[in-house]
């Protein structure tokens, strides 16, 4: 235990830098995924013929092994943070796309008809009825994608993307348990913090009435 503490003390600057790199590539990938998947999910609720093909394609992306997808990025984008972010972006799409589509589709049709009867336009119905009622589910997808992405980002080190995976894979390569344990614990800590923050965001975004119903 003392060796582990000593290792952290000696390498704390490097560890903090790797935590920053890991957080950066994860954040950029998830936010890019959010900006793409939410509008795309909304569009798919309006185009029944397309939704099964698009969601099916994103499902296929999810089944590609992480290392295989990262390897595919090398001839296309080289090595470094950019190909790692692109790969993580592709992996982050499914939870947010699926939850956006599901959340909006599950809004009671009677409520949408009532809004239409009040003279609301399609955009007003989306903005004032569908999104407020589905935001909790959408943010649930965001929370899931964030946690998954932080875990997958460990593999970014394989293609020179940086992050805590450097400690994990280097520790494995040189049989350094302290390095391996530091990388694993720091990744778990980041995922736990991200889960806490995104859960709070989800609760804040959820309308008070829905929060009360969920609590009951």
List the helices and strands and how they pair.
Elements: H1 2-10, H2 12-46, H3 48-63, H4 66-77, H5 81-105, H6 109-117, H7 122-152, H8 165-174, H9 177-205, H10 208-215
Helix pairs in contact: 1-9, 2-3, 2-5, 2-7, 2-9, 3-5, 4-5, 5-7, 6-7, 7-9, 8-9
Domain ABC transmembrane type-1: 19-198
InterPro entries: ABC_transp_perm/SBD (IPR051204), MetI-like (IPR000515), MetI-like_sf (IPR035906)
Keywords: Membrane, Transmembrane, Transmembrane helix, Transport
How would you describe this structure to a colleague?
This protein has 216 residues and is mainly alpha-helical. It has a single domain (2-210), classed as MetI-like (MetI-like fold), CATH 1.10.3720.10. It contains 10 helices and no strands. The protein has helices at 2-10, 12-46, 48-63, 66-77, 81-105, 109-117, 122-152, 165-174, 177-205, 208-215.
Main sheet properties: none
The assigned structural class equals mainly alpha
Given the C-alpha coordinates, what overall shape results? elongated
Please provide the count of β strands: 0
Distance between the termini: 45 Å
Low-confidence stretches: none
Determine and state the CATH class.
Mainly Alpha
Instruction: Please name the CATH architecture.
Output: Orthogonal Bundle
What is the residue-averaged pLDDT?
89
* Count of helix runs: 10
The CATH topology is given as MetI-like fold
Strand content: under 5%
- What share of the residues lie within helices? over 70%
InterPro entries: ABC_transp_perm/SBD, MetI-like, MetI-like_sf
Membrane topology: Multi-pass membrane protein
Organism: Brevibacillus nitrificans
Family: Belongs to the binding-protein-dependent transport system permease family.
